[in-house]
Each structure stands twice: as structure tokens, then as C-alpha cells.
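For this section, I looked closely at the sequence of one protein beside the C-alpha cells encoding its backbone, which the following lines show:
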Amino acid sequence: MKTEEIILNNFSPDYPVESLANPSDILFFDIETTGFLKDEANVYLIGCAYYRDSNWNIRQFFASSTEEERSLLESFFSFAERFSLLIHYNGNSFDLPFLKSKAEKHGIPYTLDGKQGIDIYQRIRTYKNLLKLPDCKLKTVESFLGIGREDRYNGGELIAVYNDYLSSRDYNLYQTLLQHNSDDIRGMLGVISVLAYYDLFNMPLTAEGVKSNFYQDINGISRKEIVIRVRLPHTLPKTISFMGKACYFKGEKDTGTLIVPVYDEELKYFYANYKDYYYLPLEDTALHKSVASFVDKEFREQAKAENCYTRKISNYLPQWSVLVSPFFKREYDSKDLFFELTDDVKRNRNLFSEYAAHVINAIAFQN
């Protein structure tokens, strides 16, 4: 078995990995195999990236024959023991189950189960359409981020290269195998910045400014909207924008701009305990029985769920689940929800931070 080491001088990922864990506790890794079926194929190369002595380093464990698979696994498991966070690309579906199967085959203790893990592929695949990616393969994400690589092979094509190496011991073939794996590791260190999109939807946002804006629609009608400027959890590697539900969002670097329409209309607040209310048809409103009992019986009736409301003309913001109460609707069966844009709401910066996240998720993943 062979071990190779590369020092990545002056390299730093374009993502604050220290927000995930102490860099010295993080291990990136990727495996190369002779096939995709665990029971038939072998692991012949495992590449890792780790932080030591103020530098990121790559270490590669290479099996010069299929008989060296056991020693390769033992060496890798021993090396990985010191790290608490594993970062990989689709490792939950392939790399980790493959390694566990091989450990069981050789009777080697499998020591990776107790470690924390981040699968970059699984974290970003939800956002494939938002990022306009054809797929979420590592090379595709690298290309999206503008990351180049030297090798031109994929993992499947490398199987034949490894078999040729076993028969010829050609040093150039050996270098080709190492190059592909090291490019995969460098690629992971590069595409870690794509996690900023995951963070956009899964970490708190900070509203730094809220202002009103007036404009005329295509029919010349005056409309009102609010513009929320938010600080994003981490810097986005590329600008992203999307719209939906009459809202618009643009994220650029560490700043987001969210535009939400303000609805100036009469909406209804529906009381939940309608059995305690009378509906007054002439006033088109509901009153609690403690008050409405003084109304002549011919001008009142037992309220029903659909008419147990009070009406109010005001400015409203949309919401797609109950973030702010009380919430208003146009009609009882309406799915659209709103809350009143009161003076207290306008001054509540924490609420606008939560609301920005609420709107961004709603429009990004609208049905």
C-alpha cells in the first residue's frame, strides 16, 4: 500500500468551515472503487483533506493490489480516528455504506458511525432548480462555481485505468488515478462554498433595513410594496434570484433584497369559537353573545364558522403559514393569509428577520 501527501500552500476554502467545526476536527474524504456493487468491487484509493500546521493538506491511501484493500482500510480508519466531522459528496449513499461493507468483510472495526457528517450533495440537491443546474454531480457544481480541474475521467472510466495499472505498473497510470482523486478532493474543498445556499434557507437571516416603495402597475394603478434588505448567513459564491407569489428575492454576496407587496384592502378576522357569537346580517359582522344579546333577535342569528368575523380596512402583508397573529383572510375558505402592517410591526426588526426567511422559503419552494 502506498501513501501520498500534498500540501496546499496558501489555500483557503471560500466558506467559513470554522462555522461547522474547528478546522482541525474536519476530514474531507472520497473513495475510488473498482465498481459500484459493494459485494463485488474493491476500494483501491481513498483521498482525504485535513487542516494541520496552518495549511490544508491532501493524503491519499492507494492499494497497489486488491489484496491490499484490508491494509488500506485499516490505515484510513486509523487516520480518520482523530477527526470528529466527516465531509463528503454523496457519501451517505455510496462511500460510507461501501466502506462499512468492506470493514465487515475483512472483520475490521468500523469507526465512522459515531462521527458527525455533512453530505454536500444531499444538502444542495434541493436547490438544483433554483441554481439552474442540470444535475448535482460534483463536476457540474464545480463548473457552476467556475472551478477547473486537470483530469478528464469520471470514476467509472478510472476502473479500466486501475486494471491496466495492476497489469502494467505504469507510473503514468498511477499518477492519473491519483490526479483524479486529488481533483475530487480539491473539488470538494472548492464546492463547500455552495453550502451558502443551504444556509440561506436553513439559518437565521438578519433584516438590516425595511422601507416602503410606491409604484404604478401595468394598469396605471398605484401600488405599495416593502423592500427588506437582509444580511445573509454566509457569502453566496454566485448571485441568485427568484420570484413567486408576487414577491421577488435577489441574493448577492452577503446581502439579500426582498420585495413583498403590501395589500391595502378590507380583510376579515375569523373568530375560532363561533358558537359564542351572533352574526348581525345588517352590519355584516359578528359580536360576542355577551354584547350581541342586547340586539333584537330579528337582527341577529347564531354565527357559523364562515360568517363569524369582523372586517377591517388596513395595510396587510401576506404569509403562507401563521407566522404572525392575528391573521386575516378574504373569505373563510381562502388559503391566502395576511397580517396587519401596524406601527408596532414596522418597528419590529426581529419580526422582519423572521418574516424575510418565511417569504424566501415560501417563494423558493412554492407548489
Observations:
- The chain has a mean pLDDT of 93.
- Residues 171-191 form the longest helix (21 residues).
- The CA atoms of residues 318 and 338 lie 4 Å apart.
